Amino acid sequence: MPPSLYEQAKQFIEQYYSELGLPEEEKQLRLSEVQADIDATGTYEPTTSELTYGAKVAWRNSNRCIGRLFWEKLHVNDARHLDKEEDIAEALLHHINEATNGGKIRSTITVFSEGVRIWNHQLLRYAGYVNEDGSVTGDPHSVEMTAQCLNLGWQSQRTAFDILPLVIQVNDGAPALFLIPESIILRVPLQHSAYPAFDDLGIEWYAVPIISDMALDIGGLLYRAAPFNGWYMETEIGARNLADEDRYNLLPMMGEIMQLNMTHESSLWRDKALVELNVAVLESFRKHGVTLVDHHTAAKQFKRFEMNEQKACRHMTGDWTWLIPPVSPATTHIFHQPYDNTMHSPNYLYQQAPYKVD
Ligand code: ARG
């Protein structure tokens, strides 16, 4: 039998009181209150302080994340009182603004009530359009979401870097569409000091990755709309978003600009192009004063996280297949050791997109 809601709540509340070193009497009082609420209403409500702690620990428990050293520095916005689409949209714009912070990115999460859904994969994401010849303009990752937005009446520019509108749904009602004002979107034009021809391609990436399609699992409750962000590691953009063949697929273009010998794989032109694409991302973010970490520094920070967890006598978990960076993985310590991929709660979970009905 799966654990009851009370059992899950109890486990979370006990962890909260013990990690924060709060008095036993208070814990007992809180547990009886939670028990009574569940008996009377079928559910309970974590306090803002419990929610704040839970959101941070959910980050600490995110096995795939290399950036967890900073888990305690998450800014938590409790937006569980909002139930109107307009107010939710305003809170999301506020999140984008506060997290962007003029380029000095702040890790932030905004938690909405359980009936709220956000259709977007990330609050900021480029649209993708399938052309008649089957090619895609924009980000192929967004093709389905883009079609949904167009279907809901979105008027788009059809460029390779259109930011999708926000789609918000409350209690299974009709989805509502909101445009994100261009003034709050920080875009970083990409350039490369050694290859001026690259600057003219008009390639860019947005500054802040704000994941908005994962559910925050806390004490048996599931907050399905809880967008959160950190800052980018350069490989996410340079080695995946812009390089993957089923994404922007820019390695051949980079190879041409660098005049590499692309007739033989053994020239390692892909590897050379990949590294320079990553250099372009690092240089451009730095030039525009936007927070970004390179994969070597991120791995060192992760090492410190591992040591902190050990000092705190907590058993650290991780997913090796995600923790290793996609560029030169064996140059980091992560590559050379195993990780235990057990999932602990609180955590951030995948969930089915609301627009996908099976
Ligand atoms: N890999 C995703 C992307 O490229 C973002 C995932 C979250 N990344 C982060 N640094 N917090 O958009």
What does this structure look like?
With 358 residues, this protein is of the alpha+beta class. The chain has a domain at 5-117 and 216-229: Nitric Oxide Synthase, Chain A, domain 1 (Alpha-Beta Complex). The protein is built from eleven helices and 16 strands. Strand 6 (166-170) and strand 7 (176-178) form a beta hairpin. The longest helix is centred in the last third of the chain and has 19 residues, at 269-287. Bound molecules: arginine (ARG). Residues 67, 209, 211, 230-233, 236, 241 line the site of arginine. The site of arginine has 9 residues, from strand 14 and helix 7.
Which key terms come to mind for this protein?
three-stranded antiparallel sheet, 11 helices, four-stranded mixed sheet, Nitric Oxide Synthase, Chain A, domain 1, 14% strand, alpha+beta, binds arginine, 358 residues
Mean pLDDT: 98
CATH superfamily of the domain at 5-117 and 216-229: Nitric Oxide Synthase, Chain A, domain 1
CATH architecture of the domain at 5-117 and 216-229: Alpha-Beta Complex
Stretches where pLDDT falls below 50 for ≥5 residues? none
**CATH topology heading of the domain at 5-117 and 216-229:** Nitric Oxide Synthase, Chain A, domain 1
What share of the residues lie within helices? 25-40%
The first-to-last residue Cα distance is: 26 Å
Instruction: Return Rg in Å.
Output: 22 Å
Total number of strands: 16
Q: Encode the helix/strand succession as letters.
A: HHHEHEEEEHEEEHEEEEEEHHHEHHE
What is the overall number of helices? 11
